[in-house]
Amino acid sequence: MMAHASEKRSLLELEADATAPPSRPATQRSRFAIFGLALIGIASLGAIRYLGNEEPRLGGGAVAESACRQFPPLHPPPDHSLDETRDYVFGPYLNTSVRILSQLVQIKAESFDDNGAVPVNPETLDQWTYPPFSGHFDGTSLWGRGSVDCRDTLAASMEAIELLIAKGFSPRRTFILSFGFDEESKGTDGAGMLSKLIEEIYGRDGVAFIVDEGGLGVGEMWGRGLAGVATAEKGYLDVIVSLHTPGSGHSSIPPDHTSIGILASIITSLEASPYAPSLSSDSAVLSMLQCAAEHGTVSATLKKNIKAASRPGKKGERGRQDLADAYAQTGKAERYLVATSQAVDVVAGGIKETASFVVNYRIATDSTPQYVKDQVVQHLLPIAEKHNLDLEAFGQTYTSSVTSGAGGLLTAVGNSELSPAPVTPTTGSNHWEVLSSTIQHIFSDRYPEGLVVAPCIMGGNGDTAFYWNVTRNIFRFSPSDPVSDELIHTVDEHLLFSDHIRAVWFYHEL
Hints:
Blueprint: H1 5-12, E1 33-36, E2 39-42, E3 48-51, E4 57-58, E5 74-75, H2 85-89, H3 94-105, E6 141-143, H4 151-166, E7 175-178, H5 191-202, E8 209-212, E9 217-221, E10 224-233, E11 235-244, H6 259-271, H7 284-295, H8 300-309, H9 313-328, H10 332-335, E12 341-351, E13 354-363, H11 369-386, E14 389-393, E15 396-398, E16 408-418, H12 430-442, E17 452-458, E18 474-476, E19 494-496, H13 497-509
Helix pairs in contact: 3-4, 4-13, 6-11, 7-8, 8-9
């Protein structure tokens, strides 16, 4: 939770009308950036900034051996107008920010991804503490659909830009705010089109880095305050398996195996073979665990496994497999950070001759969609052979060796295929240093002993895949405590407003 007593007073003891921020000429410069509905990025980075009490210098360049180097807070010089932002946004600006986000939440989400929010099931309307599109502010939290995901980010990024404009801030290159409108439904028409335009204007790899929503946010983990920035994202694949068999007659005289029964045996076979955990040398999960071992509190056994996994060569390979196996056993959520998940979540049938099911895969960052397809085929082949079925799977045809297809046709097709995202580098990266140091600055009041800023992965998928051509550096991070804002896409979604104000400050400083 983020509300310190002094901070809470600043939220409640405000004048009715917010005053304008102090306006002075700005000299600090950042080069080119992208913000988005869940997207911010900065390109051609060359900004000189203050790191703690050090002299201004260009970010980058490790100075010590470390698997998880931490950087000092990055903030404007003490006598600079931008240094006054925290007191302003947590004080006289608060009412303005409440009004902006409240009005945004009041826009009803009529489609699946409307202005950064999903629709509300009409059957749940009487279950809400406050109406879902009221944008009600109770003095601490703002209530309504999209208040957390993702109108919070949408408003905060634009508020930050407006504050910079009001101060006369003049960046060396253009800031781009890129807001998609269909991220919840793959992003094809939003980010899919916007990314093409950005690449057309700025070229391939023309953006230094992007900051999308996501990550672990900021909270307590391994006995320390930790900010989890996702530098990788799992892949995605839906596999639709269908079976059509010849007419089976009346249910009183059934065949030995109906379409539904045969598909049930396939599902049983798939679920009996979960994907094994694994870790590669560039895994973001390995980097996260190295940070835990170096800066947090972990068991002696886990620390030993992490150390072994960090070795080069064959010893490191064996160590990473041992670590993956051990980490996967600590919990289901942990398991699926290091393994491909498999979930049969849609079944259709009822007509005896035809039935189908959909199995969803979230593909581990060191695997591929093709590997998953190959594994599916290995489960389908023996069952097709047993029941004398022809098999058409992912563009390949396999004919029954008994009597060609006399038993029916089994098909498997892939849908919404997405490879795991390229891993964003963090070692020797100016971009990682600037982001990490800015996070340290923004949360230094809550964690005076310092945060551990660590890479992690996204188990779900946003729409940043469309931007892979414009940058190698995509960071997924929401500057908030996910525990305090845990109601997302459900009844009583609401946002601790101090988290929103801190997000405004974060985007402003970045």
